Input
Amino acid sequence: MIKLNNLEKCYESKAGKFYVLRRITLDVKAGEFVSIMGPSGSGKTTLLSILGMLDSAWAGEYRFLDVDVQKLKLKDRNELHKRYIGFVFQSYHLIDTLTVYENLEIPLSYRNVPGAERKSIVCDYLDRFQIVGKKDLYPNQLSGGQQQLVAVARAVIGNPKVLLADEPTGNLHSSQGKEIMELFKRLNDEGVTIIQVTHSDRNAEYGHRIIKLADGWIDPN
Output
């Protein structure tokens, strides 16, 4: 599903090039649950942003569903992202001026899902995530755990093939974090490919394998 070959990311400065990622070669099969770990500054979030097609300034090869991402026009890359990828951010990234219901509806509107069908799908996900009673509330009226539940629901409501999660439990209490991770496990059991960045050994163990980064390199140990 995902194939990286010698992927690199760097920034130019007066002192020369500063590499954030170096020669990343990685395969992720459909249905895998992969955890990416490493100290702060090791390149984890940058790698996730590239996988999610939120960052286009990199070198090397990235193939997604056998499509060469580097050769795509920006419009086609955005379409690929919208159609196949869900992204869960550590800071939720909900739209403050929209209700829970409206936040969930947005990904479906991107996919041109008809209005009546959107309503049915949103209602189904409100029920599935047990947030029906929150549908008319705004993000600032929710707890951190509730906001993250909405963020996960929004990320998967469009039935993505891949779910990318950047420290999805970083701002949550342990019980809320466990709830999110158990939800990820259920989604993975249903066939969603998941790649998460985490500092937590406990959360990492939900994955089928762990990839460790150090100073932008994949740590072979």
The mean pLDDT is 91. The chain has one domain: 2-218. The two ends are 25 Å apart (CA to CA). The longest helix spans residues 174-189.
